[in-house]
Amino acid sequence: MFQEKIGVRSVRLALGLLAGFVAGQALAQDAPIQRVEITGSSIKRIVKEGALPVQVVSKEVIARSGATTVADLIQKLPAMQGFTIEAIAAGTNSGGRTTASIHGLGGTYTLVLLNGRRMAPLQDSGSSVNLNSIPMSAVERVEVLSDGASALYGADAIAGVINFILKKNYQGLTLDAGVSVPTNPGGKAANAGFTWGFGDLETNRFNLLMTYRHDEQKKVKATEREFSKTSYIPLNYDGQAYIYDRTSTSGTASNVNVAFKDPKATQIGFNPYKKVNGACPTGFFPYLSNTATTDYCAVDSASTVETVPESKRDTLFTSGRLKISDNLTAFADLALGRFDLTARIAANPVSVAVTPGSAVYNQYVAPFLSQAQKDDVKTATATYRASEFGTRDSQTITDVGHFVTGLDGSFFGWDMNAGATYSKYKLDERYTGGYLLNKEFRSLIGSSSFNPFLPAGSPTSPTAEQINGSIFHGSIREASSVLRGVDVRASRELFALPGGASSIGVGSDYRELHQVQTTSTAAKDGTIYGFSPSAEYDYTRESAGAFAELALPVMKNLELTTAVRYDRYSGVKDAAAKRTKGETQSASTYKISARYTPTTALLLRGSYGTGFRVADQNDIANTLVANGFTAGSYACPPALAGIDQNLCRPGRVQYNSYRGGNEKLRPEESKQFTLGFRLEPSSSVTFGADLWDVKMTNQVSSVGEIQAFADPTKYRELFTDFADPATGIKTWAFINAPINIGKAHNRGIDWDLTVGEKYSFGKMTINANGTHMLKASYTLPGSDTEWTDSMDKYGIDNQVTFRDIIKVGVTLETGPMTNALTLNYRNGYTDQAATLYSVATKANTTNQIRLQVPSYSTLDYQGKFAISKMWEVRAGIKNLTDKEPPLTLRTSSGHQVGYDARYADTMGRTVYVNTSYKF
After folding, report:
1. Measured between alpha carbons, how far is 744 from 746 in angstroms, rounded to an integer?
2. What is the pLDDT of residues 281-327, one digit of tens each?
3. Contact, 634 vs 710, CB < 8 A?
4. Most exposed residue of 132, 573, 593, 703, measured as fewest CB within 10 angstroms of its CB?
5. Which residues, 6+ apart, have CB-to-CB distance to 797 below 8 Å?
6. How sure is the predictor about 1, in pLDDT bands with cuts at 50, 70 and 90?
């Protein structure tokens, strides 16, 4: 059971508590009731079902999930879609970042809080928070507000809020340990930690708490799973045999591209080894996307990547609370974390110039050119892959520090809280294998013995000594994000109304966000062969906001709440450019909500509000920098060939890409509403549903590469030339830059059902919850009138919006033993369009084919046994039936082919045991 509503036990209990509150101060004096602050409201009140849909993931639910990381816990909630997973570290500079995304709106619209306060965002992803920054062992519960909350929390809470509530006032010592082992090869994981607390805040007037945990995750190689072992995939569609070819034209026995001086002449490409020997080298495939001007051989590069990267994680949380007086408590929280991840992908594909007239050129290139072509040759370039130098290994070490100190108290009828925050997110990306030293590698390929057109292991292959001496080891970039802030908030009762006392909450906050990225000397000075460094920047932006919230119980069964907020963001101070980029931006937002209980068994609620979000500093201030390659392969569009044929690459291949910013970006704006109910027809049955709707305008977006390559005339400004650092040869490149014209409209229903009954043999509880999407529409990038969507299909945003994601849990408690089964379901969808090779016609299909990806379900089991009051053991099996990810032909991840790790379990059946002992 993942979703547990506040006050879910009984709406009647909530009303009873409310009635006690309305009775006035006399009752409060006789039996004081503790008031707490619930996510989504600044007013401290009695815990009860409110006007906003807040879901609670309790400590027991966390343990029962079997999740070993915060990301694993959060990303499996049915309301989560469109998040970033750790596996994208294969082939990116993500460092294994993970994000949360409520209702598919995206991580930049989902505010993540730690004990109600902001953390430093991802340095290279704007306002998103890396879930790997959250100390799993310290989490007491998670509150998820699946409704826009910009009016309370600020500009980036359009989709909602995830608030991690950490442990406090803990006494004793608890030791925890766990291990998980897939039944397939690879992927073993283990963790161990402790939680220690001393002093009781109420009796000793102080409490000290410390919790530490160490996690290790072993890698899973692509070849260790059937679904990921190859990028040359045979399949059947509509009764016909096809091959999906995502192999790479960069190989050790290289292909060669030949360009000509005549600007009207078309480049050609072929494999010299095949020309000489009549067939591709052993281990190579005939490239199935060859055109009239190419005859390539290809390698299965996807088979060399890692489906799950290896990682280590250490997290420490320590907290202190001191009760200065009955009405004032001082607190300080410190969270520290280090996340060390190493991702390995296919060996380095590099361009190697072949000098016309050289021995290699004369033997392997010239014989296959006509005399007219020989006379007109401009350049010949080998598409070499340094497979003998090993895989490309990228290690990213992420350090997180989050410190908050402040005061919590009551003065003159006000409940007040003030705090100061210092939060830092820092990463160091290092290359530990497979990347080449420029001077040494150029010396090697410049020798007369080097031949890029022969397979690995040939007499001309580099020696082990040459290989070891040509590999770069070291840092390529460091980046950090530092958030400094102060905040104060207060709430109190005001005046009496027919339904009870009205309440007000007020607050303000100030923040400074400083984001820096530097590249190492080696990354900039040409030490690494063919390397384009990341952008360097030093950005700072300040923001300030103030809010007020008013709760009005106008009747005994009707409460209205309204909130307003004003935010102001400065422009981005660019230290390198010595100027401010972008303008100061400000806005006022509001929210109105209501809860109505016509009977003791029924609660009705609704809300309406507005929001706004300023663009990330990078989106505003970034300069144009190289950003790898396009995800897909493309033939040079005729429109671009007509401008400059020499910039075209032969055949159907990947093109280089750039990324840049836009100083003219305006804030995004939103309007959202919710309508819902909670129904308890009996003490054993609870059902609820909330309809939500979010509309966004001025949305920051960018034109997708598929769209741009399909109409390069319309998007001409998104294409420029790229000079290969290794050869100096220029080709067309795609520019990925944000614009401010988009619109989006998402709508859906969150629902949950809980049924619990006690029997002679124990208590059985059934909980089902899910999200049913009704709309997931957005305008095409570059347009505010042309709409598309990703509903049950792979959209141009490289995402799928699933109409139904459902989780059903059945729990049986029998004395010290608890057994739980959990079913996870998401529906099928229409896959990305793909060009396939027809085995019958021996040619690529002229019309692209879209597979129907089937629905995907997994079944998890866990048994908990309380050996004693102090000792607890949990054992379980995730993915009990060892369900593999379904086949998908997506191209949005160039290094992981044939499956989508975002939407399916890549680990397979996994057995785990966790134990906890409290002294």
Report:
1. 7
2. 998 999 998 888 999 999 998 888 888 999 999 999 999 999 999 99
3. no
4. 573
5. 704, 778, 790
6. very low
What's the pLDDT at 651? 86
Q: How far apart are the first and last CA of the chain?
A: 28
Rounded to an integer, the average pLDDT of 679-693 is: 93
Only one residue has tokens 């309380």, namely 866
Number of neighbouring beta carbons within 10 Å of residue 391: 18
| DSSP-assigned beta bridge partners for residue 759 | 762
Distance CA 141, CA 57 (A): 6
Which tokens hold the place of 677?
Answer: 């109910």
- Structure tokens given for 481: 């994000």
Buried b (16+ CB within 10 A) or exposed e, 611-641: bbbbbbbbbbbbeeebbebbbbbbebbeebb
Distance CA 184, CA 197 (A): 39
pLDDT band at residue 2 under the 50/70/90 scheme: very low
Kindly tell me the sign of the dihedral angle through the C-alpha atoms of 352, 356, 359, 365: positive
Three-state SS at 107: helix
CATH number of 6-12+55-224+307-348+390-436+471-624+660-697+743-918: 2.40.170.20
- The residue length of the chain stands at 919
β 762-779/787-789 pair status: antiparallel
CB burial of residue 760 (10 Å; 0-12, 13-18, 19+): exposed
Q: Are strands 160-166 and 110-114 parallel, antiparallel or unpaired?
A: parallel
Take residue 796 and report the two structure tokens written for it: 């141009």
CB 506 within 8 A of CB 525: no
Q: Which of 454, 398, 459, 395 is nearest to 427 (CA)?
A: 398
Is 572 within 8 Å of 602 (Cβ atoms)?
no
Beta bridge partners of 644: none
* Residues forming beta bridges with residue 912, ordered by sequence position: 180, 876
State the DSSP string of 695-728.
EEEEEEE---HHHHHH-TTTTGGGEEEEE-TTT-
Q: What is the pLDDT of residues 470-491, one digit of tens each?
A: 999 999 999 999 999 999 999 9
Give the span between the Cα atoms of 210 and 685, in whole angstroms. Answer: 39
Residue 784 has pLDDT above 80, yes or no: no
The 10s digit of each residue's pLDDT in 630-659 is: 878 899 999 999 999 989 998 888 899 988
Query: Domain boundaries in the chain?
Result: 6-12+55-224+307-348+390-436+471-624+660-697+743-918
> What does DSSP say about strands 656-659 and 668-682: parallel, antiparallel, or unpaired?
unpaired
CA distance 188 to 67: 14
Which one-letter DSSP state was computed for residue 75? T
Encode pLDDT of 350-367 as tens digits: 999 999 999 999 999 999
The three-state (H, E, C) secondary structure of 616-647, written as one string? CHHHHHCCCEEEEECCCCEECCHHHHHHCHHH
- 867: Cα within 13 Å, side-chain hemisphere: 9
Token pair of 821 as six digits: 């089964």
- Residue 860 tokens, joined: 């998890």
CA distance 473 to 528: 10
Query: Tokens 């009747």 sit at which residue?
Result: 555
